[in-house]
């Protein structure tokens, strides 16, 4: 039984990403241009997320062009058994690899995404092997977005307002009054 599931319309997914992109643009714009450097961890983190969103939007644009705007994705988070099955599959594949040029390092993404997709406009079969073959042929931006969504659905225990990052920010404010 999956941890969490979601059905998401393509246009809803695009709108969510565009909203997040707007928020990131506002946050980055508040950083003085001279401080938008690789040495500024806050800027780097925001810029990396903005780059991820750009890739995801590119992938979803491909879905729109290939399958139309009126499509949905049904995704499920993976539980321990499903995750371990993927790890076993990777181990089996690694043991079959004959030469170092046949890396299996990134195959987990294909297996993970195929396992987490319940339905999508490009999935024609419920068979896991067929799903893997289909995912293997998708643009990387699409699989990156799907993997991110499935990761989110597979995560438990992140209580609202109790993240470690928030705790550090509160303590930083206490010790460094001018840090904000």
Descriptive keywords:
180 residues; mainly alpha; three-stranded antiparallel sheet; 3 strands; globular
3D architecture notes:
With 180 residues, this protein is mainly alpha-helical. The protein has one domain. Helices cover 61% and strands 7% of the residues. It is built from seven helices and three strands. The protein has a three-stranded antiparallel beta sheet with strand order 1-2-3. Helix 2 (41-67) packs across helix 6. 17% of the residues are buried.
Topology:
Blueprint (H helix, E strand, L loop, with lengths): L4 E5 H20 L11 H27 L4 E5 L3 H17 L10 H10 E3 L8 H9 L3 H15 L9 H12 L5
Antiparallel strand pairs: 1-2, 2-3
Helix pairs in contact: 1-2, 2-6, 3-4, 4-5, 4-6
Give a brief outline of the structure.
The chain has 180 residues and is mainly α. The chain has helices at 10-29, 41-67, 80-96, 107-116, 128-136, 140-154, 164-175, and strands at residues 5-9, 72-76, 117-119. 61% of the residues lie in helices and 7% in strands.
